[in-house]
Amino acid sequence: MFFLLLPPLAGIFLGSVNTARAADNCVITSSDLDAVTAAAAQGLMAELAARRALLTRTIACAKAEAQSLQNNLNGLSVSDDEKTIRAQLSDRLNDAMNYYDLELEKVGGAGITGTQIIAKEVFAWRGNNYNFLAAQVANFTLWVKSQNLFETALARLRSVESIVSFLEQAGAQNELRSDLASAQVLVQDARNENDSARNAFLQSLPPDQTLALIQQSLQSLSDAYQKFFDISTVVQTLLPTKP
Amino acid sequence: MLDGEQKLIKDAVQGKSSAFGPLYDHYQPMIYRFVFVKVGRREDAEDITHQVFLAAWQNIGSYKHRGHPFSSWLYQIARNQVVDHYRAKKSEISLEKMDPEYFVAPATAHFDLSTKLEMEKVRVAIAGLKPDYQDVIVLRFIEDLPLKEAAHVLEKSEGAVKLMQHRAIKELQRMLEQQKN
Amino acid sequence: MNLFQILKQFKNIEPDPAFKETSRRAILAYRPVAPTTHLWSAQRTLWRIIETGAAVALTGFFVLLITGAFSGSRFVPVQYSAVDPQSLHAEAQAIDIQIQLANVTYAESAVESTVQTAGGKLLGNPKKASSTAPSAARGTTEATSTITIDQALQGLSQ
Predict the structure, then answer these.
(1) Does residue A111 sit in the same domain as residue A153?
(2) Judged by CB atoms within 8 Å, which residues 170-189 of A form the interface with B?
(3) Residue A2 touches chain B, beta carbons under 8 Å
């Protein structure tokens, strides 16, 4: 089966998200859960101790995950406009870490049933709050790291416009103009969709909607480059040798 | 045939990927089905289909329209790729010895269970036919290709294809009967 | 269902959309060499003459531009690199990489247990990766597996 090889930048990006998942020695295994079950066989006190220990470690890992996301977020190079969005996301991550601290404080005084309730509540809270936040942080990171592509595409478009104009003056084919027009529309679409994605962050739209806008904008860019390639093919047949 | 196909092909021959894209979108499912029915395994079908279109795009410069649909050319490439695939495996595949799981078809996951089971029986039986018979069954009875186009793909006369499809169906029915017993 | 009806059902088989998208992208990223046409017909020969004439004229423009025979203001300086395939390819590839990253959504990375990146290589479908990655890469034995925070919380709630 074929697969795409991505350069280290992709690895760094994904690595940062995955590091958040298991930050700083936070590796929880199925045998940790098995140990709780095994402790139950030794008696209630043993089970309680095991549950408290694993629950404490789990919530601490969740907090470390949020901290790691925040560190990555704050490490992004953003423009002034985007600092507002980053600040909003960072504040929400602070809220998440505060929540985890409050839950951690409860664990020490909880019985077996109490630890089960805390675990259930934290699980539900993550499903209703944290997972959306983490998704949005991932989206924002992706969006920030894509911005240079739009700048590059615009610069490319300007250069291609110049060469097409020049060749038209020299009597070249009209199909260059048609391909260029398509490329111009696609680059503009990409920029509009990119702006919509920025607004989606500001309006705190659901992460899946934001991601869809990011994907659309990147696809428009990709389609614009197909047109650049087509123009390149025609130009190369017109100019047999590179200067 | 795709709308505006002739223009797309002309542009694709000139190297325009924006023209080859729509051709890919239109023909990829039928080539995939053709390959999948012959090889049975989704991963293999995906790999081979990918190779078909890669080969088509790499060699599009040499494509010349000769009064036959573009799909005929793609089917011919697909037939060759399947042959190469089996050569590369370098082993005689005995259907009896194959793990049934090999033929599990995620591509048919959306069908109801009884249809899926029927399809799988038929697919296994088709896989046991000789390659020409497999091809004529897929082209004529699954993809509904006109006789003329099927004959071009198979590089045979229309009369030969008519005879072959009759024999292929008879053989397939015999194998299914054998399976039942 | 009779045999012919069953055969008709095969027409409903569709390839996996994710595979189709990835395959399409990989294929179109390949740049074919422009065809060298074998010129047999008079029409093609005539067109070739016209194209050659245009090419000569354009080359002449470049020569004159480089030698400064034209006064500068009327003509825009032309950069051949604007359509250089190698640089276009590099930029297009950067976009394709971002598209691939966008497709690996947080939801996917949230449900998988053991996505690992090794030397910057993305292991296709993270779900597939988690089931096929060797356990040595996960640093676990066959008997245990790394679980997510949510899985641990679910386990502890019982």
Answers:
(1) no
(2) 179
(3) yes
